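Suppose a colleague, Dr. K., hands you the sequence of a protein chain of 130 amino acids and asks what its three-dimensional shape might be. Before reaching for any lab equipment, you can write down a predicted structure in token form. Begin with the sequence itself:
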Amino acid sequence: MVRPKKDEYLRKSKRINLRLDEDQYDIIEGYANAANLTISEYIRQQAVHGKVNISCPIYVDMDQVHEVVQELSAIGNNLNQIAVYFHIGGSKTEAVRDAIYEAICLVRKTCRELTKKLGEYHGDLETLCK
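The predicted structure, expressed as tokens, is then:
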């Protein structure tokens, strides 16, 4: 059985030949694969539109995000209580200073944890498109 002919407006009658070295070909092939396009279609879109959007969905574990948000909220409440204490004329004691340092340590620790958790979702296209 013969394949039906394409409509006139869908036919590609013009041809451009392009020579590449191995490295150039590998780069273009990688981008085309990341965009889920053939090499020809990728080059065609690059030439006509100037850009091919490559999108990779990023999946986030909302339980981990919720956990970090709760920790940051608790730290914010502690810092707010310390600020209120000073605004009502509280004295600067060793215990207050320790509470401030503890809050700062918690903020740093939470930032490190957040960076670690988000680091799993940051990287090159191969990492993101798994």
